[in-house]
């Protein structure tokens, strides 16, 4: 009996200590203010569709912040959409540059959101990463719902995102209803994975098979060799070559000197003739044989043209209904 009481008391003390530790951790963490997506300051937009014949592009930016500490010593695992430096990183370093090639002929919309810091993807545990990024994904879904409620739904829809933004695209495909999915010309998951589990959670993820199919998901990750696949972002079950829009191993030539070949086994792009040296390795996590940072830029001309092709294909199908 004495042993049972001792064990019970020991367990109670341990539980109390754990609760205190969790409460202490919660108090030392900072969660930035949520964005209000009815505020135009929470968006970067560009209207390049002077003929009203293009698509509405919803773009989700990637990861730009590391863990940071507030002035009162609290750690934060998320970007702050009201912080001028964080906004500049998201806007000037990526969103505006992507808009430069995605907005011509289209209407472009990209929300600021509380994206998870890079450390979320270095936890070496998929469940932990999912838990850490839930806040960011919720922001993106709220932003999309606002965007969708206010756009002209007779126009084709393009959803695109890079890295953490690619993760958000996958989550959006699970989030949208069938009516919204029917408006989808294509979804572009750049530099992130689509898993078998993702495909089981929704019937909205259909792998692109060619250049002009609609309602499909385009997914690719670039490596120098399949041995460099980064499992955090690159262990995917679907893939397509964005240069020749094939799903087999027929190589394509980009910019006259770069050979891009899809590995049908691993669903990643293997490139030769391109070093990616402009993207230095980050903490031995990315750009270490993979060329993660190149994804929205190396194939930008291919993406620009393909958005037009798929939007036109969607309109042609819509006109027949």
UniProtKB/TrEMBL annotation:
Signal peptide: 1-26
Gene3D superfamilies, per the entry: alpha/beta hydrolase (3.40.50.1820)
One Pfam family cited in the UniProt record for this chain: DUF3089
Organism domain of life: Bacteria
InterPro entries linked: AB_hydrolase_fold, DUF3089
Keywords: Signal
Listed name of the protein: DUF3089 domain-containing protein
Taxonomic source organism: Xylanibacter ruminicola (Prevotella ruminicola)
């Amino acid at each position: 009996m004495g042993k049972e009481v001792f064990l019970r008391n020991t367990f109670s003390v341990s539980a109390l200590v754990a609760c205190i530790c969790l409460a202490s951790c919660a108090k030392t963490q900072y969660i930035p203010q949520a964005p209000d997506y009815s505020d135009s300051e929470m968006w970067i937009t560009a209207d390049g569709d002077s003929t009203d014949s293009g698509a509405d592009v919803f773009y989700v930016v990637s990861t730009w912040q590391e863990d940071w500490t507030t002035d009162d010593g609290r750690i934060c695992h998320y970007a702050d959409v009201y912080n001028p430096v964080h906004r500049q990183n998201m806007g000037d370093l990526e969103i505006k540059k992507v808009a430069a090639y995605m907005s011509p002929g289209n209407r472009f919309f990209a929300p600021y959101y509380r994206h998870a810091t890079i450390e979320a993807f270095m936890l070496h545990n998929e469940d932990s990463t999912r838990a850490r990024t839930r806040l960011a994904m919720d922001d993106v879904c709220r932003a999309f719902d606002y965007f969708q409620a206010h756009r002209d739904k007779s126009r084709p829809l393009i959803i695109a995102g890079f890295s953490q933004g690619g993760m958000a695209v996958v989550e959006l495909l699970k989030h949208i209803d069938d009516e919204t999915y029917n408006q989808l010309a294509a979804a572009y998951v750049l530099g992130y994975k689509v898993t078998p589990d993702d495909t089981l959670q929704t019937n909205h993820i259909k792998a692109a098979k060619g250049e002009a199919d609609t309602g499909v998901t385009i997914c690719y990750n670039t490596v120098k060799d399949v041995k460099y696949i980064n499992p955090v972002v690159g262990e995917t079950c679907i893939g397509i070559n964005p240069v020749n829009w094939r799903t087999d191993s027929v190589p394509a030539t980009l910019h006259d000197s770069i050979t891009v070949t899809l590995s049908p086994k691993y669903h990643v792009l293997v490139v030769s003739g391109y070093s990616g040296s402009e993207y230095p390795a980050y903490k031995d996590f990315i750009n270490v044989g993979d060329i993660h940072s190149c994804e929205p830029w190396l194939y930008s001309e291919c993406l620009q043209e393909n958005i037009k092709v798929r939007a036109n294909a969607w309109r042609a199908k819509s006109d027949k209904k």
